Amino acid sequence: MANYQFKFDNQTNIGGAFSGIGCMLMGILTVVAGYFIIKGLYWFLYFLTPVLLVAALIINWKVVAGFGQSLWNLLTRNPLGGLLAVGLTVVAFPFVALFIFLTALGSKKLEKLKTEMGKQMAGNVETDGEYVDYEEVKTEDATWEEVKPIEPSALPEKVERPKKQEGKRPENPYDDMFKEN
């Protein structure tokens, strides 16, 4: 029986072929922990789903209608993909309800931000009845008589470019390569 020793950076690995068992066990433990976390989140959202859907309908009903419309469009355009999407929606319905709720909440915040920005752009910013501090800046318009023209000596001189030589180009040994004799 042969005794194998694996070396890494001039250090002998005592564990031999079983040295990766710890990493494999940690990987399996991570996957199992992730499964239980997702299962617990699914269970929690399962009971919270009706509340999330009603809240999404109250906040912005167009998001719920838009989600249903997108599923219907997918079914008409691509029946197999649409059936797959509907099946996934049914199986993962608590997560879909959370997605619809967060989308409705985000769209409401976005609409509020748009109206606020629209007021700012129009100059209707409310300042709680107080005046806004500002400073008048006087502008002096210069007349055309006051503007001094640029003197010709300050301009750069015109540089003449060398003209291209018309005529025969230098001989190229490849020019005659495809000519018929």
**pLDDT below 50 for ≥5 consecutive residues: which ranges?**
none
The overall pLDDT, averaged over residues, is: 80
What distance lies between the first and last C-alpha atoms, to the nearest angstrom? 79 Å
Order of helices and strands: EEHHHH
Total beta strands: 2
Number of separate helices = 4
Structural class category: mainly alpha
Proportion of strand residues: under 5%
| C-alpha geometry | extended
Order of strands across the main sheet:
1-2
The share of residues in helices is 40-55%
The gyration radius over C-alpha positions equals 38 Å
Major pleated sheet: 2 strands, antiparallel
Tell me what you see in this structure.
With 181 residues, the chain is mainly alpha-helical. 55% of the residues lie in helices and 3% in strands. The chain has 4 helices and 2 strands. It has helices spanning 21-59, 61-77, 79-91, 93-122, and strands at residues 6-8, 11-13. Strands 1-2 form a two-stranded antiparallel ribbon. Helix 1 crosses helix 4 (93-122), helix 2 crosses helix 3 and helix 2 packs across helix 4. The radius of gyration is 38 Å and the shape is extended. The chain starts with 5 loop residues before the first strand and ends in a 59-residue tail after the last helix.
